From TrEMBL, chains A, B:
It is an enzyme of class 1 (oxidoreductase). Residues 45-124 form the Gamma-butyrobetaine hydroxylase-like N-terminal domain. This is trimethyllysine dioxygenase. Signal peptide: none annotated. The lineage of its organism: Eukaryota, Fungi, Fungi incertae sedis, Mucoromycota, Mucoromycotina. Pathway: Amine and polyamine biosynthesis; carnitine biosynthesis. Converts trimethyllysine (TML) into hydroxytrimethyllysine (HTML).
Length: 418, 418
């Protein structure tokens, strides 16, 4: 291919010079834009252009990548934020006709005359060679780990229902602590459902179309529907994707016991890692088959068939705990050594999980609604006597996170980070 | 711990000797029971007992595993099929007081007097040291790969709605081919919804509470709501768990074009693997961030943030394709070499995906409803003019698989395989 003439220009310094040039962006900075402006930009070789952010930092961007990521309205729908350009019509060896620097960003003209414009902030945010960002603003609040002594200000029902600030406070607590309490909720299923729907729709499962409500009447022949104590667990280990959030509201209670138990699973995982890195690895890699098969017409198992108790993303961060020892299917795939390691690690996990210093108990008196992250916080209850009516809901993970993100991020933020 | 007296008995031969002793069980056999009976059983060492299935095959089972997997009604609820015994009350070094063989299976007495009984079939099915089973009956039908010339008998609406046999035929086709057509469906949203609900409930998303119905009005800020052609893709690449099944029914059409396209993604993946093992590896390992951010209050991305196009289980089997190039977010995490490899592999994938020998076209005339596996079959459409009203639904993966399994497996089968 003929090497084309490339304009290589020095960049006009257009942003405030007071922006620290070596600042490591955090999520907030990234959303606001880092203010980074390159000192030079030009052609690096046949396949890439470069941007010198400063004397020590240079990014390179592939020509093909630039063309594929053109953000003009013809190539990327400004409303749907979907790619409109057909990636496969772009020549794999495409080279720009010209590269020009402007105050707003990098202007590139392509062989067919198409013009692309890339904001400096956007280029800095998405620099991949090298990666310059240090955090991912889409990921949300960093978890704040807690133990039995967690003191969390309850959120007020009126504030959550009627103000964006109250809603934001509620979602911030759920993202940060994995749990939040709302007080002053009317003692009805309808009010509890309205609270859930203030966040997003309710996830339907084979148990319930929407919000559920029950007494200990053994209606579903499940230990959940008895008066027995339940150890700390997460729900839905048998689903490919367990429910993201759970909400409980004890509408009526005349009796003794029946307190609710919550444990910060991320904290217990951290403690396990400190105590035994090898046990942590075992619970992060041993695949546990699970099932839900109580109802005659139900036989739910996850796809793939089994997941570890501790689930990590590709970057190594723990993002999900799946733990309900009662729903575990027959272990029939481990070697003798793996089986011994698993049981040993499980005992260590159990010891930490049931340590009183990790157990947060709450009597959940009527009017006080709890919502918690079923991917992080394990729940249980003490045995009870008497009459108890409880209602609750499963909420979907992606939609809860979407709601939290949408409250945090403006439309401009979306454009910058997506 | 004091070594206890163990009864070591030779097994009574109680099953028919005509059962082939070296038969490799398949899924069907496994469900029916292999009929395998051990020739001897006894103590192997402090931690394990053994079963000699024949002169060449011996299984060992850990004492702890046996106690943890006791299937008596006190330890495992016969209806809910949940573990009732508290695993953590079992001594890690537990040893049986006695081991006895009976016609029904292995009888074990524990130090506290508890008696456990394990059916021979169950022990054979779940032998883990070594693994004796050769297939997983919970996984369902093996996929039958297809190309443009797929000829699939349509299923009749009446049969699906009114008979278990029709329903089973429908689900069998979906599991085997990833697609099925139902004919004779009344041209109403209500009848289409009833058909969907014959399978299971409809998955709610931010798009729709239940069944959706639309004309080309860009209602949801998504290219799906236009008259444009859409290349083959899967939906919901931005969900942590994409919808399992999709159903479409073209209720009204006066115009030209608008045919539906279906491609067997598992077959295209196979072709890619044959053409270039390295491109296949690239699409199986390169993480692609995606998003849905068209609606103002929506910003959905998956957790973890990015998934490969080709997703494999721990055993190495391809189980899910996630591919919608238009919903791809900015690639900002790949090295230059990874980026080049990715684009090269993506072009090979695209070439196979758009090969006419892989494209199944169907005009989907009103009354002919398609349902397809959104984890396997990619769909698209040609551009169209005129008036077109289409309705459809997302159905949840786990509940669809549960429905198919429940039709296949009896209550006894459940006991044997879980």
């Amino acid at each position: 291919m003929i090497r084309r003439h490339i304009q290589q220009l020095f960049i006009k310094r257009s942003f405030s010079v007071s922006v620290p040039r070596f600042h490591k962006p955090n999520a907030k900075k990234q959303l606001q834009g880092t203010g980074a402006v390159p000192q030079r930009a030009g052609i690096a070789n046949d396949r890439q252009i470069y941007l010198d952010w400063n004397a020590r930092k240079t990014s390179v961007f592939h020509n093909f990548w630039l063309r594929d990521h053109c953000r003009c309205e013809q190539c990327y729908h400004p409303v749907t934020r979907q790619r409109l350009i057909d990636t496969f019509t772009i020549p794999r060896d495409i080279q720009p006709v010209s590269v020009e620097s402007t105050e707003a960003g990098l202007q590139v003209i392509w062989p067919d005359g198409h013009q692309s414009s890339y904001a400096w902030d956007w280029l800095h945010t998405h620099s991949y060679s090298p990666i310059l960002r240090t955090s991912e603003p889409l990921e949300g609040k960093r978890p704040h780990l807690w133990r039995s002594d967690l003191k969390l200000d309850p959120v007020h029902h009126e504030a959550v229902m009627n103000t964006d600030e109250g809603l934001r406070q509620w979602l911030d607590q759920i993202e940060t602590y994995g749990i939040s309490f709302v007080e002053g909720v009317p003692l009805t299923v309808e009010a509890t459902e309205a609270l859930a729907r203030r966040l997003c729709f309710i996830r339907q499962t084979h148990y319930s179309e929407g919000i559920w409500s029950f007494t200990a009447d053994l209606a579903h022949a499940d230990t959940a529907y008895t008066t027995l104590a339940l150890g700390a667990h997460t729900d839905n280990t048998y689903f490919t994707e367990p429910a993201g959030l759970q909400m409980f509201h004890k509408l009526e209670f005349k009796g003794k016991g029946g307190d609710s138990l919550f444990v910060d699973g991320f904290n217990v995982a951290k403690q396990l890692k400190e105590k035994s890195a090898s046990a942590y690895r075992t619970l992060s890699s041993t695949l546990i088959p699970t099932h839900s098969a109580g109802d005659e017409n139900v036989l739910i198992v996850p796809t793939p068939r089994a997941y570890p108790i501790l689930n990590h993303g590709p970057g190594g961060a723990l993002y999900q705990i799946r733990y309900n020892n009662d729903d575990r299917s027959t272990l029939n795939h481990l070697s003798s050594a793996q089986l011994e390691d698993f049981y040993d690690a499980l005992f260590m996990w159990h010891e930490l999980l049931t340590s009183s210093k990790n157990e947060l108990w709450d009597s959940l008196s009527p009017g006080r609604v709890v919502i918690f992250d079923n991917w992080r916080v394990l729940h249980g209850r003490s045995a009870f006597t008497g009459h108890r009516r409880i209602c609750g809901a499963y909420l979907p993970w992606d939609d809860f996170k979407s709601r939290a993100r949408s409250l945090r991020l403006s439309s401009l933020d979306k454009d910058r980070v997506l």
